[in-house]
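Field reference: sequence -> structure
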Amino acid sequence: MVAPFARICCLDLDTFFVSVERLFDPSLVGKPVIVGGRPRERGVVTACSYEVRQFGVRSGMSLTEAARLAPHAVFLPTRDGVYSDYARRVVAIAQRYSPVVQVASIDELYMDLSGCERLYREPRDISDDATIQRKVKELIDVIGREEGLPASIGVASSKRMAKVASGLAKPNGVLFVPVGDEACVLAPLPVRKLPGIGPVAERKLAEAGIATLGELANLPRAKASKIFGAWADAIQSGARGQGSADLGRERPAFREYDPAGEAIGSISNEQTFREDVRDMRSIERVLSVLAERVCFRARKRGVEARTVTLKLRYADFQTLTRSHTMTPTNSELRVLPLVRSLLAGARTRRLPIRLLGIALSNLGHHALQLSLFNDAERLHDSVDAVRERFGYDALRLASSEAFAAATRRAPP
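Structure field:
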């Protein structure tokens, strides 16, 4: 009987947006770079180089705060279409090494190398583990040579452990976690290293005297339940290095949690305009982008929503929300007309709009369709299958693509 071996790879393109920008402008190499917009623009940091992180700049931070912390940094707007092209080419390279590749985001993917060890084995290899390690190092070299992009790879027995390992391998490295060593690798790490633990959960754990994943793994069940509720078992299993190796679309390998450490009860996306907007065509395009995004995320998690909520913020910061409950759905073809109707009812002032958001809530597991000829269902399956293979931007609604084209920055 063949012994189990680490077979799941998490490939993370290091500071991906910054790395692409450096391909266009090599003078940026070694400099503190922030991608996301100009210093005085509204918006957040999309990506930042390692050189600027030492000043406290992080992804998701407002551009204003980033400029305060690192006024000397180079600030660049994003190139919407360009990044996805590079991401698709990296996916194509990964598919040379494994027939099972799952795209998690524009800069992250998973590979299942189960069964591939026989394809890779050569006489000098001493074990399946040695084969896998050699091949993932080769993969990083190929991505660097063909696309000029640095990458890190974590190899482990589950998706969650592989993701943690890829983070520990940065920058531009490989970390292989042998089967049985997961708990030892995780034990000394801060609790925030585990996917699903946010800042509020970290604070609650700190109040309970828990700082490391080893301490979390050994926390009495009753105390863990007070912090994580029904998800205590899942979180503690993750802290021990246990998790799913399934890269299928039916169920995620681990659940996401909100900052309080509770299971997410909603899926949302927002867009802050760089300048306050009055033009309805621009507003409609953003609604399309948001509806498409939240519905795609719902389908990825195998859930449908009964409630759709529109968030509207005017230029003077007055914020309104409007909700509607309906039969469960995860289709943008249903959500988009509904949020358009909610917007028409909510927009009672003549002020321009600063922010739009869409949230799906009252989530439930996706029900089986009774009809074998549900065109919308088949359409979404086809679209999502293409995105799984080539990245999210491979297919878009026409109105969403129009928004992307309108905001795209042409390469020099």
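Note: Residues 151 and 336 are 37 Å apart (CA to CA).
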